[in-house]
Amino acid sequence: MNDAIPFPKTVYLLRHAHAAWARPGLRDFDRPLDQRGEADAAIMAKVIRERGIAPQLVLCSSAVRCQQTWDIISGALPADTEIRLLESLYSDDYRHYVRQIADSRAQSVMIVGHNPMIEDTAIALAFTADEKAARRLQKGFPTAGLAIFQTNRSEENPEKGGYLSELLSPKKASKLANH
Question: The dihedral of CA 151, 146, 62, 125: what is its sign?
Answer without folding.
Answer: positive
